[in-house]
């Protein structure tokens, strides 16, 4: 038999509750073995002998049950398949980013149209748009013009997205966050 090195530190419960190979640190006398048609509680030694006989690994599938649930699998292949599934899931997910568009109260019509087109592209891509209108100098006395510009921006983009909350003024800046429209 193999010589096991006994640690002077007591084994601690694994932080990772995912499947892992059954080790001597895990002290279970009986395990529930799942393998195709087999689904029964057997002594740990019998399960280890069966694994050695088939050239497979005993993998703990559930730590929270009593007795532990183990399965006979090729652990390298098992990890590869799980990693492959995780990579595929990561490819399919879309991370929503917040794209910022900055404007001034004195923006020209053509510049406004360009900013609106950029915001439309961002919303169609599934990102959020944060519109920031900065007030400089005496423009703070005419904040109503900035609020009007913000409302116009929201109305122009209403078919592509909807505002998340109200138009807010923080110091000398007015911000509006517009989220993408729900896809049907």
Lay out the secondary structure.
Elements: E1 20-21, E2 30-35, E3 38-43, H1 44-54, E4 57-62, E5 68-73, H2 75-92, E6 98-104, H3 109-124, E7 128-134, H4 143-156, E8 161-163, E9 168-170, E10 173-180
Parallel strand pairs: 2-5, 6-7
Antiparallel strand pairs: 1-4, 2-3, 4-5, 7-10, 8-10, 9-10
Keywords, separated by commas or semicolons:
single chain; 184 residues; alpha+beta; Ubiquitin-like (UB roll); Translation Initiation Factor IF3; 2 domains; five-stranded mixed beta sheet; disordered N terminus
Calculate Rg over CA atoms: 30 Å
CATH topology of the largest domain: Translation Initiation Factor IF3
* Mean pLDDT reading: 83
The CATH homologous superfamily of the largest domain is called Translation initiation factor 3 (IF-3), C-terminal domain
**Termini gap:** 62 Å
Low-confidence stretches: 1-7
Name the CATH class of the largest domain: Alpha Beta
Name of the CATH architecture of the largest domain? 2-Layer Sandwich
Helix content: 25-40%
Structure report:
The protein has about 180 residues and is α+β, with helices and mostly antiparallel strands. The protein folds into two domains: about 20-90, Ubiquitin-like (UB roll), CATH 3.10.20.80; about 100-180, Translation initiation factor 3 (IF-3), C-terminal domain (Translation Initiation Factor IF3), CATH 3.30.110.10. The protein is about 30% helix and about 30% strand. The chain is built from four helices and ten strands, in the order βββαββαβαβαβββ. It has helices spanning about 45-55, 75-90, 110-125, 145-155, and strands at about 20, 30-35, 40-45, 55-60, 70-75, 100-105, 130-135, 160-165, 170, 175-180. The strands form two sheets. Strands 1-4-5-2-3 form a five-stranded mixed beta sheet. The longest helix is centred in the middle third of the chain and has 18 residues, at about 75-90. The chain is rod-shaped, with a radius of gyration of 30 Å. The model is unreliable at about 1-5 (pLDDT under 50).
């Amino acid at each position: 038999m193999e010589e096991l090195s006994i640690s002077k530190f007591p084994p601690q419960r694994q932080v990772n509750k995912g499947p892992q190979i059954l080790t001597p640190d895990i002290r279970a006398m009986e395990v529930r073995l799942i393998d195709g048609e087999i689904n029964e509680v057997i002594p740990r030694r019998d399960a280890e002998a069966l694994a050695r006989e088939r050239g497979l690994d005993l993998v703990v599938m559930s730590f929270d049950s009593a007795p532990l649930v183990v399965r006979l699998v090729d652990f390298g292949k098992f990890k590869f398949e799980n990693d492959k599934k995780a990579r595929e899931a990561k490819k399919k997910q879309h991370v929503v980013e917040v794209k910022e568009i900055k404007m001034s109260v004195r923006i020209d019509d053509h510049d406004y149209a360009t900013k609106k087109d950029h915001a439309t592209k961002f919303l169609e891509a599934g990102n959020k748009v944060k519109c920031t209108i900065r007030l400089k100098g005496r423009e703070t006395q005419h904040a109503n013009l900035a609020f009007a510009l913000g409302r116009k921006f929201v109305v122009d983009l209403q078919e592509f997205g909807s505002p998340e909350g109200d138009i807010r003024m923080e110091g000398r800046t007015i911000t509006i966050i517009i989220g993408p429209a729900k896809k049907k």
